[in-house]
Amino acid sequence: NLAMIYFRNGDVASVESLLSLPYEFEALSCFSGAKLVRLYYYHNRFYEALDLAYRLLKKYFKLPEAHWDYITLFLDLGDERRELSDPDVVNVGSSVHYEDQFGRMQVVTIDSDPQVDSPTPDPSDSLAQLLLGKSVGAEISLHGEQDPLFDEHLIIKSIKSKYVHAFQDSAENFAQRFPGNKGGPRRFPMRHDAEGRINPEDIERLK
């Protein structure tokens, strides 16, 4: 709230100082978290904005607003999304799309932060260890040579950043998860005058 007061008063230095301080994530509501995401965004702290929006999406996964807010931010990032190009190999923070031995497509995100919509092994888990460092097309045996008669295997089909996967999942499955919802993205566009100052009316909408 104090950061919002400084923001409305145009005190950029004080906002930057507050944004550098730690915050209590568990105390953030979906709406207050969305405002903090926007403060990060308007101060060009794009990674912090995206990571917080991602965590809020998982925390409030059953709320359509959390999905709209994440979709909106991801689209607003524009050229900054180029930093989220598909990784060459599986890393912590990768979402791995793979095909199992029955031809079924599965997805798993390797992240130490638990995820709601898909299984999320800790990087130290056995499945994560088998996937880490592998590239697209790699065929992985889940049992190795220990049990060749009942071998299960998977083939990596694609590797994406967890942020990209979350955006695609929210955008593609929104209607099925929230049928009948007529809401839209909660955009917070900011107009600037010739001297670069934010329009006071736009600041008021962030209160």
What's the topology here?
Layout: H1 2-8, H2 12-19, H3 30-42, H4 46-59, H5 64-76, E1 94-100, E2 105-109, H6 126-131, E3 139-141, E4 153-161, H7 162-177, H8 200-204
Antiparallel strand pairs: 1-2, 1-4, 3-4
Helix pairs in contact: 1-2, 3-4, 3-5, 4-5, 5-7
Write a short abstract of this structure.
The protein has helices at residues 2-8, 12-19, 30-42, 46-59, 64-76, 126-131, 162-177, 200-204, and strands at 94-100, 105-109, 139-141, 153-161.
Written description of the protein model:
There is one protein chain. By secondary structure, the protein is α+β, with helices and mostly antiparallel strands. Helix content is 40%, strand content 12%. The chain is built from 8 helices and 4 strands; from the N terminus they run αααααββαββαα. The chain has a 4-stranded antiparallel beta sheet with strand order 2-1-4-3. The chain starts with a helix and ends with a helix. The mean pLDDT is 80.
With strands numbered from the N-terminus, the spatial order across the biggest sheet is: 2-1-4-3
The mean pLDDT is 80
Strand content: 5-15%
Largest sheet: 4 strands, antiparallel
Query: Rounded to an integer, what's the Rg over CA atoms?
Result: 20 Å
**Percent range for helical residues?**
25-40%
Individual helix count:
8
Q: In terms of per-residue confidence, which ranges show pLDDT below 50 for 5 or more consecutive residues?
A: none
Structural class of the helix and strand makeup? alpha+beta
| Order of secondary-structure elements | HHHHHEEHEEHH
What's the β-strand tally?
4
Gap from first CA to last CA: 9 Å
Which descriptor suits the 3D outline? elongated
